[in-house]
Amino acid sequence: MGISVKTETNKEKTSAPRKRNSTNDTSPIISVKLNDIAIKKQKLSDGSSVVCDVTAKSSSDKFYSETGRTNKELSVSPNSAKGFRKIKRPWRNKVRKLAMKAATRQKRLSTKAEENDVKKETLKKKKRKKKKQPNLTESGNSEVVVKKSEEASQLQSARFRFINEKLYTMTGSEAFKMFLDDPEAFEAYHEGFRSQLKKWPYNPLSGVIQWLRTQATDNPVIVDMGCGDAKIAAELQELATVHSFDLVAVNDFVTPCDMAHVPMDQESADIVVFCLSLMGTNVNDFLREAHRILKPKGMLKIVEVSSRIPSIKRFIFGLEKLGFSIAEKKFRGNGYFITLQFTKSGKIQQKRPLGLRLNPCIYKRR
């Protein structure tokens, strides 16, 4: 520990030091520095000394007394350099920490105040905000309208599936009675059918109409069994005589009846068409009625979903037992539909052949 001592007289001072006692003031003052603390002692006349001043070292290695007097810079020898290490002042660090905490607290309070102001402004804007206009789609309809139309479409599809499934699992006479009691159900069924038709890869009815145009020579008599909205009659009314039969008459072209008993004379038709209309559990009765009204060598056109026919070979064999011979077999729409063309070749050999059983369209429960 380095010690430096400095003496000075009171005469060199501009102001007298504080009086420690009633002794002579001309006694020399001794300044002693221990590490970073300088102690000043005053020597009394009787040889004793008293502490008169204690100062701390500043950053420029100068000592400042409590009385405010500045002492000259102390001379430091190389051996005593360690005595001038920077003093540790824990009290100053504590002050800084307290100041930082106070600043952090103040900042937090100001941030909360700003957030509260923002919330108040947001609430005010919400109160002032007018009712939003509904977003419009590319077609110009609002999203709400589109959503409602989608829901209505889903309900329509569900009702179509329900009615369609019932038609596959009842006889023609039962279906005829059902639609007589509820004509709106028939309209709902055909509306759903038209929507379903748009989703198919191939329109079977358009294919049948195209084929009939090639056969429409000399005003043939065409019978459309299960005609729906009688599109064949509307398209070919100038080229042929078309009789359209279905369970309910949706327009003037349609004659309502059970397809097992149509109001036509025996051997009066040139072409009979079943386009997706072999529904019900009594398909044999429909095909026997077609045999009855067809002229000899008359043509029978059948278009069905391929999956409905468990065995095409047996189905053809069953129709041969009903007095028909196969003329053409084609798959349409990537195999989704099958088109069968027969010719009336003779009498009915068997009234209920086993091969004419078709699978009903049962939809998966959601």
TrEMBL record:
Q: Does the keyword Transcription regulation apply?
A: yes
GO molecular function, a single term: methyltransferase activity
Where is this gene product found? Answer: Nucleus, Nucleolus
In residue numbers, the region (Disordered) covers 1-28, 58-81, 100-145
Q: What Gene Ontology cellular-component terms does the record carry?
A: nucleolus
Q: Where is the composition biased (Basic and acidic residues)?
A: 59-72, 111-121
* Matching SUPFAM superfamilies: S-adenosyl-L-methionine-dependent methyltransferases
Which portions of the chain have biased composition (kind: Basic residues)? 100-110, 122-133
Q: Which Pfam families match?
A: Methyltransf_8 (PF05148)
The organism's place on the tree of life at top rank: Eukaryota
Q: Which CDD domains match?
A: AdoMet_MTases
The catalytic activity of this protein is classed by the Enzyme Commission as 2.1.1.-
Keyword terms = Chromatin regulator, Methyltransferase, Nucleus, Repressor, rRNA processing, S-adenosyl-L-methionine, Transcription, Transcription regulation, Transferase
Which PANTHER family does the record associate with it? RIBOSOMAL RNA-PROCESSING PROTEIN 8 (PTHR12787:SF0)
Q: What is this protein called?
A: Ribosomal RNA-processing protein 8
Name the lineage. Answer: Eukaryota, Metazoa, Ecdysozoa, Nematoda, Chromadorea
